[in-house]
Amino acid sequence: MANKTKNENMDQLISDFSRFYILTILYEGPAHGYQIISRFKKRVKKEVSPSLVYPFLKQLEKKGLVKHTVKAVGEKERKVFELTQKGRELCTGLFKRFADLVSIAIEPSLYVCAHCGCKVYKGGYREVIEGKEATFCCMHCAHSYKETRKLAKKAAQK
Description:
Strand 6 (125-129) and strand 7 form a beta hairpin. This protein has 5 helices and 7 strands. By secondary structure, the protein is an alpha+beta fold. The longest helix has 27 residues, at 2-28.
């Protein structure tokens, strides 16, 4: 029973992620259903079911978050969906909340450049200065940091 609940929760999570990503595709610009499915597969490297995409688009349209126009694409007519202003505002809010969550998740992995203060997620440049290891975004900041410290010491000696 616990496994069934766990699998259902995972399915819901993946479904919610898929909807979120569909919104990101629409935020980039108008698209018809097949384009959404194709872009999703190309970027996420996972199939998204048309049985999730089309009802979700219909639900968004009912709520006034997207509108569609019928356009000729090749020999076929397709419904091209586009976010409304209300839909764009919703997406902006969702993206901000998602960015905050990602920031919280990666914050423990971030280093701050000792010279310029920028955040360094991966890599960076480390150097031991006066017995202490310091992290920099690049070797140029490390060099500037050392030069600034030398100048400060000279000024303190005067």
